Amino acid sequence: MRRDHAVTPPPDGSERLATPAAADPVAKGDCEWRPSRSPERQGRPRPLRRTRRPGIRSWVTVAMTAMVLLPAAGCERSSPGPSRAAQTSPPTRIVSVVPAVTEMLFAIGAGPLVVGVGSYDTWPPEVRSLPKIGALLDPDIERIIGLRADLAVLHGSQDDVRAQLERVGIRTFSYTLGGLDNVMGTMRRLGTLVGREREAEEAARGLERRLEALKQRAAGRPRPRTLLVFGHDPGTLRSIDASGGIGFLHDIVELVGGENVYRGERRESLRVSTEAIIAAAPEVIIDLRYGHSVSEEELKREREAWNVLPAVPAVRAGRVYVLGGDRFVVPGPRVVDAAEEIARVIMSGGEVAR
């Protein structure tokens, strides 16, 4: 019986941005202040370059690519600006290509400072009217500069973009996907950075209280073996991507009373075969659908796709749940809403949520 546990490749076949095997998951010094060198020290300055757009990328592609980023905390990086005060003062014009961090900024009261967001930012509703500046694979450097940003929130893998922005004096905050506690930790760091420490602390504590309530509710109950799937071909069980034993999705399953069937795999995502799922014998299957409004017809089709595996306990018992919404894959403040929905289906066999 074959077990296919390769790390999930980017769906478009492009080169992987980062993999857990390629680097220390807790890179020492990665959050140090690193002023970029002045043009005089670098020699002849290179011209600014707009990152080439690779073509239309679906929300799902970008979300799944982000799932393989190394777990680490966000950190600020700066470069020489016009004055010392410009470096040490809180930013007044922020752009973000990271949906999770965009949501955090609004949650801590820094929404009015945000002047540009990524192509896939949809929450809170206010972001839909803001200028778009690209995303993980196609950031628009010229537009970021044109918006007169003094802080840019980037993915941890966007080293080239960060270098270009730092050369023109724009500070950057580099974010990389991590565990569930990284949500609150990043909110607190952002609060310090943007002058909203009190608001950030209050918001983070509120989320922590809700998570602790979920943990207490699950204490002492049986822990069903749970498979959490965050991607597969629509209407079929091909190209199944599941949560491994690290990352915020794994943390949610374990915190709310499930036992992740792949908890022993020290990676965030796995490409698994149907044979491997049969061998894992999950008692609960949670299938996440996201990136657009999920219709009842789609929910029904995705649930029925699992009927081809009657040997799996979850299928046999009717415990396959299709949960729809990007809150399940964007680790911002709404991740606690997602945890509450996942807790409901794991612990009580509740109705499918949309």
Question: How would you characterize this protein structure?
Answer:
The protein has 354 residues and is α/β, with parallel strands linked by helices. The chain folds into 2 domains: 71-211, Rossmann fold (3-Layer(aba) Sandwich); 221-348, Rossmann fold, CATH 3.40.50.1980. The protein is 34% helix and 14% strand. The chain has 13 helices and 11 strands. The chain has helices at residues 39-42, 59-66, 84-88, 99-107, 141-146, 159-167, 181-194, 197-218, 248-255, 274-280, 296-305, 313-316, 335-348, and strands at 75-77, 94-96, 114-117, 151-155, 171-175, 225-231, 240-243, 259-260, 269-272, 284-289, 320-324. The strands form 2 sheets. Strands 6, 7, 8, 9, 10 and 11 form a 6-stranded mixed sheet that branches. A 5-stranded mixed sheet has the order 1-5-4-2-3, with helices on both faces. Helix 6 links the parallel strand 4 (151-155) and strand 5. Helix 7 packs antiparallel against helix 8 (197-218) and helix 8 packs parallel to helix 13. The two termini are 35 Å apart. Mean pLDDT is 79; it is low at 1-74, 76-86 and 350-354.
